[in-house]
Write a structure and sequence with these properties.
heterodimer, A: 25 helices, 28 strands, globular, B: alpha/beta, Rossmann fold, 5 helices
Chain lengths: 738, 220
């Protein structure tokens, strides 16, 4: 058959190089094809073998992550991970990056990131119930930062709000290492009955292949390839590779797909994300072990004169590919016509395992699918471990602890992100119990008294200082944030954001983070069920801090027994759970107050994490604790301040005698595995007994009340001043006043 | 009381208001697809929030021309109760069932937060369960909620008791802090805030419940 394939423009080694294929990769392609490919075929190989689609640098190491557990229905490899949440329901979720497009065109880049991740989830039959996003921008002083923040936030809101899916949580951080590469990681969680989950494995030779959704245009061609290379000075020229989103069409697509999924029409379904029609058709056919033949003349296009190369590589949004039962054609078509979406039968499954593209009566491409997928290059990139950092001394305690706290509360990473999340509809559907700003979002499972807790976490400065500790910390902190609401952590999705993997020190960061995450996931029974890798977050040879973002998901069995990160009354006793050494290395205090980013990160003791977290969870679930906060950036005093501001009640705390000479280490140290809880005095003895028998340190450090935050003998700050500092920074910055 | 909720392509809070009605009445309202030209006989018609037709052209402008809205208008003219929330309010102003228009928020950004509303007129089927001047905590979630009408229209609304709710802390720049208005005969209410998202103590506020309870009682 290959003799009749369109030759088209002559493809050479040089053309292959322009498509990002190395000489070795091109030689491999020639061997698979047994002839010189035409341009369409080259294009298909190049996107399938791009870093973004093939995971060629990361695959070896991703296998190290634990992906199994009794709760796991589907681990990595499908559109999203699937976890059993009981009562016949599954939580389906994934996080994915849209870093490169968001830097070039922040509104559309972020919007289509949100659209893409929601499609990954509803492709599997789940109605999305929540979105989260982890955002990282350059230094506030960088001239591009304000523009990127404004565009990304508006894009996320513009897409999610229209879809009617609440955006309930996430994180926003700033650091100069992101000046040339912002990070936009979007996460979606949906719910589906466990017996109605849809997969991408095609089956049944002769069954029709159906294209639904929006029309195909020339936007986003080679987006996946762009995301697999560094930025250079002329990256602005890559604007045409960014896709344009239409959330209204996606809302219709969501409703139409879910309506069709209620029937038994669908055999396999795959959204068209990165590498569009190419990767969706290849995925479906390779997973099912069948061939696929497409008639490209039948693909709905919105521009005239599009050629097979463009049709196959377009990353136009809001499109899906399905294989359906032949007898279901009419019912399927009627549903999509009701929702005023394109519905086109563009091909069929075949024997022989080839991807065959017909166009204008000729064969535009003919590729054996199995080797295209299974012989995709895998690299064992050389790597060097990050050198451990020397310990630091604590430095002198600041003269004015109150002013220090105020500065920290107004520092970019800790300052309130209200300006961001008020632009997201975080309430639509009417199930949001814990709104943005807490430890983890909590959303009710509709029609029940149970809930899902969700969070995204990473502390890149720890990962830079010690990738292994940082990787473990990211997992542990997400587990802790879920625990602090009372949820049982179930599983994670990860978004690995790194620089250029061809540099051994970057690869070393990646390897270290994976090993740390692996250890934490195993220790906490907290497997990885889905994820995404984004390499080449580099500009002119300067990479970002290693940023393995962890999206954690947990289950709340009874929404009447949830804790919030706020003081809800006066005269509660404050208990600090976990050991405090006063670790200031790589702390936010060190960076924001002393202007130094040195020192090792706080060590992660996974046994202590487990012990302390299990105690806290049982205090919330079984012993009535309703005020709880995880200790993280900024340490204890920042946590006290956040709980005071959230609840509108002040607090008084005392420095233990052991820290009399290092009050700043006690107040701002970032020791791990710690929580702050506020409880009725009547509960104190009981809780202390439970802690003692669990072998968990539990120290009385003060109580709530009043309108000030007092550190006895050292500082007293009014809540209103703190609030002004905490709430004021971001709006002030965005309007150019800071 | 029988209720119907009109669903347009892009509606997204139809489920929220359905849940609120179910909580109060115990029965599910009818969901009416926008292409249906026949509206069942009901006491209350709800035009819900969302992004009908993607907010393209102008919020509510395309939905206002759908066949079902002609029928909604005819029913309202005959005295049926019509409640338009958020995008529903925008649609009702676009059909001319309510005066004025909803412009882009003064801050130019989408805003989702709880606001404080003051009840301005309790002598209606929608607001009878509130006290005059009562303050409510109810969320808003919109990009185009900045109510505007010319001064003579506003004066007429005021003198005729057509102001339903005012913002105590105006989030969007609405003229005279107007959050919701009635038509002249007070059987049509449009408001930007979402009382349907303030009906469950677990989620914060229940200040929206009296609106639904009051309607059910008045229309029983």
């Amino acid at each position: 058959m290959s003799a009749t394939v369109e030759a088209g423009a002559e493809v050479t080694q040089k053309t292959a190089a322009e498509h990002g294929l190395t000489a070795d990769e091109y030689a491999r392609l020639l061997r698979i094809m047994g002839r010189t490919p035409n341009l369409t075929e080259l294009g298909i190989f190049s996107v399938m073998w791009s870093e973004h689609c093939s995971y060629k640098s990361s695959r070896k190491w991703l296998k190290r992550l634990p992906t199994e557990g009794p709760q796991v229905i589907q681990g990595p490899g499908e559109n999203a991970g699937v976890v059993d949440i009981g009562h016949g329901l599954a939580a389906i979720f994934k996080i994915e990056s849209h870093n490169h497009p968001s830097f070039i065109e922040p509104y559309q880049g972020a919007a289509t990131g949100v659209g893409g991740i929601m499609r990954d989830v509803f492709t599997m039959g789940a109605r999305p119930i929540a979105n989260l996003n982890a955002l990282r921008f350059g230094s506030p002083d960088d001239p591009k930062t304000r523009h990127l923040v404004a565009g990304v936030v508006a894009g996320i809101g513009g897409y999610g709000n229209c879809m009617g899916v609440p955006t309930v949580g996430g994180e926003v951080n700033f650091h100069a290492s992101y000046n040339g590469n912002c990070l936009v990681n979007a996460m979606t969680l949906g719910l589906a009955p466990t017996d109605r989950i849809f997969y991408s494995s095609a089956a049944g030779v002769g069954n029709p292949v159906i294209y639904v959704g929006a029309k195909t245009g020339r936007d986003g061609i080679h987006g996946a390839t762009m995301a697999s290379a560094e930025f250079t000075a002329d990256s602005e020229e890559k604007r045409p590779t960014v896709q344009v989103g239409d959330p209204f069409t996606e809302k219709l697509l969501l409703e139409a797909c879910l309506e069709l999924m209620a029937t038994d029409a669908i055999i396999a379904i795959q959204d068209m994300g990165a590498a569009g029609l190419t990767s969706s058709s290849v995925e479906m056919s390779s997973k099912g072990g069948v061939g696929i033949e497409l008639e490209l003349d039948k693909v709905p296009v919105r521009e005239t004169g599009m050629v097979p190369y463009e049709i196959m590589l377009s990353e136009s949004q809001e499109r899906m590919l399905m294989v359906i039962r032949p007898e279901a054609r009419q019912i399927a078509r009627a549903i999509f016509e009701k929702w005023e979406l394109d519905f086109a039968e563009i091909g069929r499954l075949t024997e022989g395992g080839h991807l065959v593209l017909r166009w204008h009566g000729k064969i535009a491409a003919d590729i054996p699918v199995e080797p295209l997928v299974s012989e995709a290059p895998v690299y064992d990139r050389p790597w060097v471990a990050t050198k451990p950092r020397a310990a630091i001394d604590d430095g002198a305690a600041p003269a004015d602890l109150g002013a220090t706290l105020t500065r920290l509360m107004a520092s970019p990473d800790i300052a309130s992100k209200r300006w961001v999340w008020e632009q997201y509809d975080h309430l639509v559907t009417g199930h949001t119990l814990q709104r943005p700003g807490g430890d983890a979002a909590v959303v009710r499972i509709p029609g029940t008294t149970r809930g899902i807790a969700m969070t995204t976490d990473c502390t890149p400065r720890y990962c830079l200082a010690d990738p292994e500790q940082g990787g473990a910390q990211a997992v542990a902190e997400s587990w802790r944030n879920l625990t602090a609401t009372g949820a049982r952590p179930l599983a994670i999705t990860d978004n690995m954001n790194f620089g250029n993997p061809e540099r051994p020190e970057i690869m070393g960061q990646f390897v270290g983070c994976i090993e740390g995450m692996r250890a934490a996931c195993i220790a906490l029974d907290y497997p990885v069920v889905s994820g995404n890798v984004s390499f080449y977050n580099e500009t002119n040879g300067k990479g970002i801090m290693p940023t393995p973002v962890v999206g954690g998901v947990g289950l709340v069995d009874d929404l009447d027994r949830v804790a919030f990160a706020r003081f809800d009354r006066e005269s509660l006793a404050l208990l600090l759970i976990g050991d405090t050494v006063g670790h200031l290395g790589s702390s936010l205090y060190r960076r924001e107050i002393e202007g130094r980013e040195d020192g090792p990160p706080p060590p992660v003791d996974l046994a202590a994490e487990r012990r302390n977290g299990d105690l806290v969870r049982s205090l919330i679930a079984d012993h009535g604790v309703r005020c709880c906060h995880d200790l993280s950036d900024g340490g204890l005093l920042v946590a006290v301040a956040e709980m005071a501001l959230a609840g509108g009640h002040g607090a008084r705390i005392e420095i233990p005698a052991a820290f009399a000479k290092r009050p700043h280490a006690f107040l701002f140290g970032e020791d791990q595995a710690r929580y702050l809880i506020a409880v009725d005095r009547a509960m104190l003895d009981g809780i202390e007994r439970l802690a003692a028998s669990a072998g968990v340190k539990c120290a009385r450090i003060g109580d709530t009340g009043g309108a000030t935050l007092t550190v006895t003998g050292l500082a007293a700050i009014s809540l209103s001043d703190l609030r002004t500092a905490h709430e004021g920074w971001l709006p002030g910055y965005m309007t150019g006043q800071r | 009381m029988k209720a119907a909720i009109i669903v347009f392509p892009g509606s997204n809070r139809e489920g929220d208001v359905r849940d609120a009605l179910v909580a109060v009445t115990g029965t599910a309202p009818l969901m009416v697809w926008h292409r249906d030209t026949e509206l069942p006989k009901v006491d209350l018609i709800v035009v819900p929030g969302g992004f009908s037709y993607g907010d393209y052209l102008r919020c509510g402008a395309i939905a206002a021309h759908s066949p079902v809205m002609r029928e909604v208008k005819a029913r309202a003219d005959k005295g049926a109760a019509v409640l338009g929330i958020c995008n529903g309010f925008q649609i009702l102003t676009e059909t001319g069932m309510l005066p004025g228009a909803l412009l882009r928020n003064a801050g130019l950004a989408f805003v989702c937060r709880n606001v404080t509303l003051r009840v301005e007129n309790t002598q209606t089927l929608f607001t009878a369960a509130y006290n005059q001047g009562q303050e409510l905590s109810v969320p808003v979630a919109h990009h185009d909620g900045n109510y505007f009408a010319d001064a003579s229209t506003l004066d007429r609304l005021e003198s005729n008791g057509q102001i339903a709710f005012r913002y105590v802390d105006n989030p969007n720049g609405s003229v005279r802090d107007i959050a919701g208005i009635f038509n002249e005969t007070k059987n049509v209410l449009g408001l930007m805030p979402h009382p349907e998202n303030a009906t469950d103590g677990l989620l914060g506020s229940t200040d929206g419940l009296p609106l639904f309870r009051g309607m059910v009682e008045a229309l029983a």
